[in-house]
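User: Could you walk me through two proteins back to back? I'd like the raw sequence and the structure tokens for each, with a short line separating them so I can tell where one ends and the next begins.

Assistant: Of course. Protein one, sequence then structure:
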Amino acid sequence: MWNGAERIEYICNSYHRYGKEHCSPHRINEEAVDKLIFDELQNIKSMADKNWQSIEKQVKDWTMQKSNVERQVQKLSEKISATELEIEKILMERISDKANADRYDRMIEKRE
């Protein structure tokens, strides 16, 4: 009790265990410990909120880019299909025109 009110304090045990060479005698009021813990928890919560917002933004950005990437993949797939058709046509022409086979071979090389 202190001035009619209950007061809880924590005392550093190092001084009692190891002596004044290792630590000075000191104590801390429970209210001060509670405030330190509460403030630290508030900081952790604030950091968690910021991390969550950052993650949400990254997911949103990724989702927006995903549709662009899908469109690019579709365009490139169509280009590959068109090139494969061109190569097929060149091969068919090459089969019927044996005299110009090297020319067709070069054309196929360019397409590949």
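----
Protein two, same layout:
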Amino acid sequence: MKTCTNKNCENINPQPDSNFHEAKHHKDGLTSQCKNCASRETRKRFKENPGRLKATRAKYYAENKGWLKDHSKNFRMKKIYGITLEQYNQMFVDQQGCCAICSRPQTEFKKNLAVDHNHETGKTRQLLCHYCNFILGASNESCERLKEAIRYLEKWNQGKK
């Protein structure tokens, strides 16, 4: 339990530690003002100087662009496929940067290779180009449907080479 140091705090009684942001440089590891007061102070500062927020964000993104991009990618990979960006990169190296089905290199595509996964189990398989990944998805991952599509193409492509 901790008391907020802001004189105008709505809650003068001690509050749970969860109402304070972490601050490693403070003895107790928490900020001196509660989250509500800190948020109110920040909004007040930006209201008094509207261009400050935009400038602050622009500077932050400029300084952390690469990190943010990788962090965001890593977060999505973990959330959607259960793998890290590092694991994706290793799969890419193992596949020599090529689609696991058509073997075309990623350099031939505008999009990155997609993480193919089993939609029922969620298990990650390999990296595919957008087109091969689409074919599997459009067929509902049905081997029989894909075999029928091959038979159809063979029927209509007889004599063509």
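The first strand starts at residue 20 and ends at 22.

Let me know if you want the two compared in more detail.
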